[in-house]
Amino acid sequence: MYIEIHDRQQLASQLASGSLAHVVVQGLDLSDVDLSHVEVAGAVLLGCRLRDSVAVELLARGALLFPALPQLPYNPYRPRLYHAAELMSGYRRGEHESYARTLDQRIYQHYVASRRKRPPAVLDTLAQRLHDHAIDDALADFLGRGEARKVIAIMGGHAMRRGEAAYADVARIARAVARRDAHYLMTSGGGPGAMEATHLGAWLAGAPDNALDEALALLAPAPDLAHTGWLDAAFEVRERWPDCAADSLGIPTWFYGHEPPNVFATHIAKYFSNSLREDGLLGIATHGVIYAPGSAGTIQEVFMDAAQNHYGTFELVSPMIFYGVKYWTETKPVYPLLENLARGKQYADLLFISDDVDEIVARLVEHPPVPYSGQAPRPIGS
Hints:
Number of domains: 2
Order of helices and strands: EHEEHEHHHEHEHHHEEHEHEEHHEHE
CATH architecture of the largest domain: 3-Layer(aba) Sandwich
CATH topology of the largest domain: Rossmann fold
Largest sheet: 7 strands, parallel
Structural class: alpha/beta
Radius of gyration: 23 Å
């Protein structure tokens, strides 16, 4: 078992013990730290800044060093999740074009350039995977902090516009769930549309009841990403109600990096790998997933989630709740197929569809996940 150290205060406490054996130090500047009298055999230093002579000495004494990688706009060993203020640093209100100067867009442009290289540059792809591993680790730390969080995801289309009834209903669902239990953690893919509505609802969980209607009215004149006031409207809502947010988690990806990160999410786990991000999002949403209207991406997520329930991938069976009866039974008739697929399986009892916000919230709260009672997959040869 390794101890993980992410800040100087933790490091000072550990150094007082005289040993870094079985300790992982992640992304810290150690150039002014005296390690000459500290046991370092078995220590792991990830992207830490060291004087060259010290690095050589630590290697000789049994430490394992992962060097910093040069000329990257991101830290592949970052020890914690992102926040909107960090990713949006460089954006100036009223200057739509300043979004191109944000950290988020600088990382995206670097990512796009790396994807165009043929063959891909090995250091670029390595750095991206190291980064996503670091986000996995930071996410595990976040979810494991304090009492267990009950993660609930809302999936739905990125094209859902502010001002639509569905957008308002998704926000009301998220707000109602967040208000029910401080351990509930509203989660989404971290982008616009239904995802933004999810985090808007959680952001206003501690605000007066009428705040959501007022916020919806402020957002509606900038209905989608094409509108130059899209980001400014969101920041105006944040500033109007700054201290009432319940924690929420956005999990976006630079694979769709043309979409800005959701600024209503209090914590952001942003990945380079879209497949890792999608599978991981569904994997942590053990207390249920609500499906708002969406297209191919949302439908793909429905059946990824169904497979996890069908085969007991995470040893739990979780609710799958659909908002929009006509949409999911006629426009995109996924629900009848899912009912057929689930027949005779545990998750058949955890499927539900409704147009009513209160019914959806009640169903979710009253039907927690249950242990998988079938035979979970075993490793080959076991």
